[in-house]
Structure formats: C-alpha cells, structure tokens
Amino acid sequence: MCYDDLARPPLPPGVGGGSNGEDLILTAADGNRFNAYIATPTQPSGAQILIYPDVRGLHQFYRELALRFAEVGVTAIAMDYFGRTAGTGPRDEQFDFMSHVQQIRLPTLYADAKASLARLREGQGAKRATFIVGFCMGGSLTIYTNTQDFGQAGVIGFYTGFSRKMDGEHTALDIASNMRAPFLGLYGGADQGIPPEQVEALDKKLDAAKLEHEVKVYPGATHSFFDRRYAEFADAAADAWQRMLSFIHAHSAS
Known about the structure:
Blueprint: E1 19-27, E2 33-41, E3 47-52, H1 60-71, E4 75-79, H2 83-86, H3 97-101, H4 106-120, E5 129-135, H5 137-145, E6 154-158, H6 172-175, E7 183-188, H7 196-208, E8 213-218, H8 234-250
Parallel strand pairs: 3-4, 3-5, 5-6, 6-7, 7-8
Antiparallel strand pairs: 1-2, 2-4
C-alpha cells in the first residue's frame, strides 16, 4: 500500500489561489461508470493534469492532491480504477482493493483515462496542455500510458514500480523506451521496493531512446515520501513539488 487514510499531500510552493472540488461519476466510451474527483482553480493557468492513484484507487489523499494542484492554477482530475469491478458506491477501510487491482486490464483502464481526459478538455480545457501524474502502481501506469497517444504534454511518475506486468507480458521498465512525451521520474533512494539499479536502468534506457526526461532520486527517502506527515522528507517533498511545477510550466503551451 502506498498512502493510507491518514496521508495528506504536502503543500505546494508559494501562495496559492482558491480552488473548488467536486466528486464525479464519469462514463467511458464502452459505458463503464467510475468515480473521479475534479478540482478547478479560481485562477487557471495553461495546464491541467490527470492523477493516477496508487493501488487503493481514489481516496482522500488524491482528492486533496487535486485541490493542491488547483490552488497553483492547474486543473486536476483524479480517477478511480475500480468502477468495472467494485462499482461506484462508498468504500471503507475494509475494501479489498488488491482483488480489484488483479482485475485491471490496460485497454479498459485506457478507456477510463480517456473519459477523464475528455472531462478535463471540455470548454477552455481544450486549449490547455495536459499532463498525467501517478504514484506507485499509478506511477507505473504513467509509463504504460505514455506509450500511447493521449495528447499528453508530459508525464510524471512517483516511485514507478517495476515488478508488475500491467499488460500481462512487460514491466514498465521493459516498455519505457517506447514512451512518447517528456518524462519526469521521482524516486526515494531508500525505497526497498525499487532497487537503485532499476532506476539507473530506466535512466539509461531513456538516454538511449533520446527521450527528453529527468530522473531524480532523493537519498534516504523511502517509498511514499511525498506525504505531509514525514517531516524527515519535507525537503524532498518540497523539491518534488518544485520539479513537478517547473516541468509542467516548461512543457505547457505558451
């Protein structure tokens, strides 16, 4: 598990503006209905972002993260993975998310992601650069998604695990060189689930593929270091926020 019920995202740098959040039920092209949460800024910038949660799906950490993005001008939508197998009803701490994770299939996940992106691109959103950020399993999914043409301006992956074969055959490391848009990867140097040699292999693969990318490792930081409770990782979390926003700014349409 990446973030528990007590986890909260760190605050972004600078003085933010206002934001408004709303729970949604979206419908994919094949008729699947799933939960999402959208946060809109009172002072929008030229960017918007889709958030891929960790294995637990849409929970409070990601609703609050969407609001934090909106406070710095980035419209954000966080999607849930489990509408196809768990429905859209409320879930408690006993929700068996892993049984639903095992039923995720990339084609249908992509259909839900496309519906989420379509919601972002309504109205003025059609003119904004669109990014994808993900955490843990969601981080891995940013790599898989970035092998597709979803009109993404860039993707950001936090602790992108390399053990799962989300397509049934290949890990995120296996297919990383097929990514299309610029990539920012953020990792904890003390993450026991992601050995340093895997992160190094990712960096080398992207170098060889000549894909614009940045891979940042924070020495001593553990998995899920991007959590307001972890005072010992506050500097890493602050730097990660700054790198994310700089990446988004650099790759947004002027």
